[in-house]
Amino acid sequence: MFDPQLARSVRHNFGFRNVRSTAALAAPWFVGAALGLDVLNTFYVGDEPLLVARLTVSRGGGLDGLALRDLGARTRVLAISRVPHQAYLEHPPRRGTRLMAGDQALPESAPTRNCSRVLRRDRPAPQGDNGDRRQAAPAPAARRLLPPGPPPLPPGATE
Q1: The three-state (H, E, C) secondary structure of 109-130, written as one string
Q2: Average pLDDT over residues 134-148
């Protein structure tokens, strides 16, 4: 349904439980992509949109060394592809698991404030006034490192 009001009317008048406008279906994907995430899937739980995306942890960023339990209750990491052996997928990671620079995490979250909070937290912290240069936050496109498909094998591994 293109019109959200029409979708509500169809849901109410015909007794359908899951009627969504095309805008409501596209919105989580669009917001996630606009935030710089490599969006893998979007779905609804009740009326709340959720997305699963691929995020590469930035060296020196706020996620580097962070335990998953410290991400917050509304963000869950489904799996982590560890550096340097990205063929290894840690699934499901425990709440005490710590993210490391270069890890590729698959967070599940609402596409608005939760995703932007996680992305802001991953920006490298500016260095102090001791002569060090300030580091700029990486461009969102830099987070998209894995091509679609299976992860590459580590050096020396065979299929």
Answers
A1: ECCCHHHHHHHHHHCECCCCCC
A2: 42
* Chain position carrying tokens 């995703």: 115
Q: 108, 31, 120, 44: which is closest to 74 by C-alpha?
A: 108
CA distance 38 to 36: 7
Identify the pLDDT of residue 103.
92
Q: Which amino acid is at 54?
A: R
With tokens 């960023």, the residue in question is 61
Q: What is the pTM assigned to this prediction?
A: 0.63
DSSP assignment string, 76-97: EEEEEE-SS-TT-EE-SPPTTP
pLDDT tens digit sequence for 1-58: 567 788 788 888 998 888 877 788 888 888 888 888 889 998 888 878 888 889 899 9
Q: How far is CA 18 from CA 30, 47, 51, 75, in A?
A: 20, 9, 18, 24
Amino acid letter, residue 115: C
CB within 8 Å of 59: residues ≥ 6 apart: 101, 102, 124
> Is the predicted pLDDT of residue 129 greater than 90, yes or no?
no
Helix segments in the chain, DSSP class H: 4-14, 22-34, 113-122
